[in-house]
Structure formats: structure tokens, C-alpha cells
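Exercise 7b. C-alpha cells:
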């Protein structure tokens, strides 16, 4: 007798699929069966899962390129052979040291690379968000509603950061909806407002402590047609993004 299908929520499916390996090695694992079936049934969850696997594959590809120098062991052995003959000692401690050095190259170097300046890390964050907005097809919102209060209630329920103290003019706009995202191990939120021109004003919110340090400019910047501005408020980093003209955007920020 066939086992009845277990219904799970999208949120539960996302929790399970976050652990799914991008290689597809878990495809036959019973632990992921219900979540994979839910992703196949639900277009919104399926789009999220596709985006998540793409991001995981990118990270895995970058990590796979990190390896200790191929000449490390031969260089150490060459150094041993050139030492004075009267100083005899076991090769094992040096090989152990070589292993430690190699491991350090694998672990420490990526950590140092991640500790970029405040400006560089913010730039990485900006590029990731703009790439997501420019993706085809466009990313699906988790909740579609014209009510700002409903978007913030949903984000709070998902334990995602909400927009702190939004400008009064911004609160007068209807919303298109909201979405929760993850970047560099941190959860962030996206709330989309509908401007009178029918363009969207996107507001990304992430906790300030997601960055070791933050260096942001005070004015708008333009990147491939996107107008971008950052603002620090109540421990949160807000990123305003829109393709609308500057005159319209500045009426609401």
C-alpha cells in the first residue's frame, strides 16, 4: 500500500531544503522527499529552491578552487636534505607542520579574504541584491499585498528585519508585497512599494551587525539604471533601490 503524501508548509520545506546539497546527491534521501515534492508542486517555492541551489553551487565552486600549494611538501623535503648532516632528526614533525601550514592556507586565507573593508562588503551586498532584482524571471514575493502593515507583520513572523521608522511619505504608498532572503549567513527582508509612476521602490533591510564595519555614502548612486541609497537606522542597514527617476524617489525617502 502506497504511503499517503505528507502535506508540509512552504516554510518547513524551505527549512529542509536549505540543507540540500547543490550537487543533487540528496535527491533520493527520504528526509527531503516531501520538501522536494512540495517544491515541484508550488511555483513560488520552486523558484526559491532554484535560486537557492544556484547560490549554493556558486559558493561550492569557489571553495573547490582553494587548495594548498602543490610545491609545499617538496620544498620542505628539499630544505631537510640541505641541512648539515650532523643535525639528525625525525621527518615526522616537519610533515606534521606541513599539514598544519596547508590546512591554514585552506582555512585562514578564505577567512582573511572575507574580512574585506566595510566598503567592499557593502558592495558585495549591493551586487547580490541588484543581481536578484535583475534576474529573469523576476523573483517571486513571499507575500503579495498592498498593505504595508501586513508586510511587516509577515516579516516579523518570519523573524526577518522590518523597516524601522519609515518616512511618513513612504507609508502613504501601497506595497506590492515582501520577501525574506539570506545573504552571507544573515536573514534580510525586501519590501516593495508601488510608486505613482508604477515603478517599484525596493527597500532591503539587514541587521547592521551582518558587517564587521560599514562604509556607506550619503547620496544616491546609479548602477546599470538602478538608483541606490544606503541608510543606517536603529541598528539596521536600509538599501533603497528603484528604476524610477530621482525626482520621484526623493519625494518618499
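Sequence design result:
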Amino acid at each position: 500500500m502506497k504511503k499517503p503524501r505528507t502535506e508540509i508548509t512552504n516554510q518547513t520545506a524551505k527549512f529542509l531544503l536549505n540543507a540540500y546539497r547543490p550537487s543533487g546527491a540528496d535527491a533520493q534521501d527520504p528526509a527531503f522527499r516531501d520538501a522536494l515534492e512540495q517544491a515541484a508542486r508550488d511555483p513560488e517555492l520552486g523558484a526559491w529552491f532554484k535560486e537557492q541551489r544556484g547560490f549554493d553551487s556558486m559558493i561550492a565552486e569557489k571553495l573547490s578552487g582553494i587548495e594548498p600549494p602543490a610545491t609545499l611538501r617538496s620544498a620542505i623535503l628539499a630544505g631537510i636534505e640541505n641541512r648539515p648532516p650532523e643535525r639528525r632528526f625525525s621527518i615526522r614533525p616537519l610533515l606534521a607542520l606541513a599539514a598544519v601550514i596547508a590546512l591554514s592556507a585552506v582555512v585562514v586565507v578564505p577567512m582573511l579574504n572575507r574580512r574585506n573593508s566595510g566598503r567592499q562588503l557593502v558592495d558585495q551586498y549591493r551586487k547580490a541584491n541588484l543581481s536578484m532584482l535583475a534576474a529573469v524571471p523576476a523573483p517571486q514575493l513571499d507575500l503579495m499585498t498592498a498593505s504595508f502593515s501586513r508586510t511587516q507583520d509577515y516579516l516579523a513572523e518570519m523573524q526577518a528585519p522590518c523597516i524601522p521608522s519609515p518616512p511618513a511619505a513612504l507609508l502613504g504608498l501601497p506595497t506590492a508585497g515582501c520577501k525574506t532572503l539570506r545573504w552571507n549567513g544573515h536573514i534580510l527582508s525586501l519590501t516593495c512599494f508601488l510608486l505613482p509612476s508604477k515603478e517599484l521602490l525596493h527597500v532591503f533591510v539587514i541587521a547592521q551587525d551582518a558587517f564587521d564595519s560599514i562604509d556607506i555614502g550619503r547620496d544616491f548612486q546609479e548602477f546599470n539604471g538602478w538608483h541606490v541609497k544606503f541608510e543606517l537606522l536603529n541598528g539596521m542597514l536600509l538599501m533603497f533601490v528603484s528604476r524610477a527617476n530621482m525626482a520621484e524617489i526623493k519625494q518618499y525617502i
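Instructor comment: The chain has a mean pLDDT of 81. The beta strands are 175-183, 186-194, 200-207, 221-223, 226-233, 236-242.
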